[in-house]
Design brief:
The complex is a heterodimer of chains A (about 350) and B (about 280). With about 350 residues, chain A is of the alpha/beta class. Chain A has helices spanning about 45-50, 80-85, 100-110, 120-130, 135-140, 150-165, 180-195, 205-215, 230-235, 240-245, 270-280, 295-305, and strands spanning about 5-15, 20-30, 35, 60-70, 70-75, 90, 170-175, 200-205, 215-220, 225-230, 260, 285-290, 310-320, 320-330. Chain A starts with a strand and ends in a 10-residue tail after the last strand. By secondary structure, chain B is mainly α. Chain B has 11 helices and no strands. Chain B has helices spanning about 5-35, 45, 65-95, 100-115, 115-130, 135-160, 165-170, 180-205, 210-215, 235-240, 245-275. In chain B, α3 runs parallel beside α6 (about 135-160) and α3 (about 65-95) runs antiparallel to α8. The N and C termini of chain B lie far apart (about 50 Å). The chains are: A alpha/beta (about 350), B mainly alpha (about 280). Chains A and B meet through α2, β6, α3 and α6 of A and α7 and α8 of B.
Chain lengths: ~350, ~280
């Protein structure tokens, strides 16, 4: 992967003692559109809001792990939170214009960051309204209230307002969900233009939107990171069962685990032998869960299990140094080759 | 008709009756004040101070009380804004939502709001003695500010609490800190409603007699100094009503009419200003 603005490492978020996100680790690629997808309540927005520390504003939120933005841990006590937020423009589900004129909405950020020069402000406002594709519609009424704009225009105004603080990243929390189809399309086209210069992270529950826009996909389910990868691979060759089910619009099944095997601290080939013998003992269709302590094991085991004709249903990180692999034993068995 | 239908009609009747009582008493009060006060109301009432023998039915007006009430309630309201706005912004922006401090502050406002104004008067007197202050406009302003404070703060709090988190988030995500968000976004968004809170408090302040009885005193001259006693409309009404002379009693109603008109005018001005400031509200 290329260089990255945002790198999430072992991020767990608890809300009121309940885990909301569990051990998420993912790098967001630069100058691409990354879509965070998953069913409602899976933690998509929480993950997004952890990037610019908006979660701080909510009570009872406990955050563990690190989020690196340009190599800096943003949850470090010494960090100036306004500088972090300045690096990211946010588009929320419903556009939230500020209670002021169109012009002042765009100038709000630059003014806060000490741009007082009237001429420069004029220029900034025009430039970013153009970037957001709104200039032509509002240039004659810059000083009328922003709340008078249509909701689609308001969302583009929010985009312009976000761009005006020169961010590196644009965060979108289902930014088209409150818009009519035409406004939504306008916003989507903007994103495709803007990804030349910005890293864009979008939360969406619309799969088709993710397919249209995303270069990289992160799939969350019930607070777990199930799968992430380049969009092509993700949509055409998803690795795990839950991803397949979600993409195909089927129910996502939680499998009951029949056997569990803790391989932490074991070495090759002993661990492979144990997996093989356990799988041989088990009746077909049963589910085996492995717990391993190094990440590479996920791929190695998956390959071997696949070769033996069984299926890897999912592989997720469950702790700082532990991963679980869920395997389904299939009926016709060629012996388990190492 | 079945039982449920009767039940519904019965309670609907009770509700309409209650509404009529509210509207009716307003009309009755206004009617009495206008009916009794209007004949005695003349220009000299508004532009003259009491001359000798005013309280015996002779020449003069209540300009002293009009000006006194304005300076008293105006000063108290400004002082009250200076205290309640920071409290409300702190509670809603800096304090954690369910913190003990926030809970306790709101609880205090509720309790203070229920304290009778005579108690504020007595408390104001204690403060005056402690500060070595005489009966004066300043002492009255401090006391009435304390009286207005819980009402204003509670009303402001209700409004600021309604500001959606998303609006604050929008400001935060542009790199604004909480102070900038408070004054540039939250106050702007809630300004019309904040003005209503101020108006309600002003109305309470200008209309209260008990709290100024010991603290502001009464005088026949117009207020010129913070450290001298000042006249107020409620006390002017009180003293005139207590007179055995019918003409003076009627003047009390005229004074009450003036007080009512003052409050009415302020309501109207506030409404116009509210509309102007609501232009940008989202």
């Amino acid at each position: 992967m290329d260089k990255t603005h945002i790198s999430v490492q072992n991020l767990s978020i608890y809300y009121d003692g309940q885990p909301g996100l569990r051990n998420i680790s993912v790098d967001i690629p630069d100058k691409k559109i990354t879509a965070i997808i998953g069913p409602s309540g899976c933690g998509k927005s929480t993950l997004l809001k952890s990037f610019n520390r908006l979660l701080d504003e909510q009570d009872k939120m406990k955050i563990k792990g690190t989020v690196l933005v340009d190599g800096e841990d943003i949850y470090d006590g010494k960090v100036d939170v306004t500088q972090i937020r300045k690096k990211m423009g946010l588009l929320s589900q419903r556009p939230q214009v500020l209670p002021m004129s169109i012009y002042d909405n765009v100038a709000y950020g630059p003014r806060i960051h000490n741009q007082k020069d009237k001429h420069k402000l004029d220029k900034i406002v025009q430039e970013h309204l153009e970037n957001a594709g709104l200039w032509e519609e509002v240039k004659s009424r810059l000083h009328s209230p922003a709340s008078k704009l249509s909701i689609g225009q308001q969302q583009r105004l929010c985009l312009a307002r976000g761009l005006a603080v020169n961010p590196e990243v644009i965060l979108g929390d289902e930014p088209t969900s409150a818009l009519d189809p035409i406004s939504a399309e306008t916003i989507e086209r903007r994103f495709l233009e803007l990804k030349k210069d910005y890293t864009i992270v979008l939360v969406t529950h619309i799969l088709r939107q993710a397919k249209r826009l995303a270069d990289y996909v992160v799939f969350l389910y019930m607070g777990h990171l199930i799968e992430h990868g380049p969009a092509d691979e993700f949509f055409n060759k998803p690795k795990y069962e839950k991803t397949q089910a979600y993409i195909n619009g089927q129910f996502i099944v939680e499998h009951a685990i029949d056997r569990e095997l803790d391989l932490r601290g074991t070495r090759c080939p002993e661990n492979f032998d144990r997996v093989r013998s356990t799988l041989e003992e088990m009746p077909a269709e049963d589910i085996l869960k492995l717990i391993v302590d190094y990440e590479a094991a996920i791929n190695i085991f998956a390959r071997e299990v696949d070769r033996a004709g069984h299926r890897v249903l999912e592989a997720t990180r469950i702790g700082k140094a532990s991963w679980e692999i869920v395997i389904k034993k299939e009926k016709p068995i060629i012996s388990f080759q190492i | 008709m079945n039982r449920r239908k009767i039940e519904e009609n019965f309670f609907k009747f009770l509700m309409i009756l209650a509404t009529l009582i509210v509207v009716g008493s307003l009309v009755l009060i206004l009617g009495t004040v206008v009916y009794k006060g209007l004949p005695s109301l003349n220009l000299s009432m508004i532009i003259k101070t009491p001359s000798g023998g005013f309280y015996l039915g002779k020449e003069g007006g209540i300009l002293n009380a009009i000006l006194g009430s304005f300076s008293l309630a105006g000063g108290a309201t400004i002082l009250s804004i200076i205290i309640s706005l920071p409290v409300v912004l702190y509670l809603n922006i800096y304090a954690r939502k369910n913190s003990f401090l926030a809970y306790f502050t709101r609880f205090s406002f509720d309790v203070l709001g229920g304290v009778p104004s005579i108690v504020y008067g007595a408390f104001g007197l204690t403060i005056m003695l402690f500060l070595g202050l005489n009966v004066s406009l300043l002492a009255g302003i401090i006391t009435v500010a304390l009286l207005e404070l819980p009402l204003m703060a509670r009303a402001m709090d209700e409004v600021v609490r309604m500001v959606p988190q998303e609006l604050k988030d929008a400001s935060y995500s542009l790199g604004a800190n909480k102070l900038e968000t408070a004054f540039k976004v939250i106050v702007r968004q809630t300004l019309p409603a904040l003005m209503t809170a101020v108006l309600i408090a002003f109305g309470r302040g200008i209309g209260d007699a008990a709290s100024v009885l010991f603290t502001t005193g009464f005088t026949d001259s117009i207020p010129t100094s913070l450290f001298r006693p000042a006249a107020t409309l409620p006390l002017a009404i009180f003293f005139q009503l207590g007179s055995p002379i019918p003409e003076v009693q009627d003047r009390a109603y005229a004074a009450a009419l003036i007080l009512t008109i003052v409050i009415l005018l302020i309501s109207i001005v506030t409404r116009i200003l509210k509309k102007k400031f609501a232009k940008h509200t989202v």
